[in-house]
Amino acid sequence: MTTIEEKYTQETILWVKNHTPKHISFAITRPKNFRFSAGQFARLGFAQNNGFIWRAYSMVSAEYDDFLEFYAILIPGGPFSQHFETIKTGDTFLLEKIANGFFLPERFQDGQDLVMLSTGSGLAPFLSILKQPSIWSRFQNLSLVHCVSYISELVYQETIQELQQHELFKDMGAKLKYQPVVTREHHQNCLNERLPICIQNGELEKALEQTFNVHSTRFMICGNPQMVTDTHKVLMQKGFSLNRVKLPGQILLENGF
Question: Is the pTM higher than 0.85?
Answer without folding.
Answer: yes
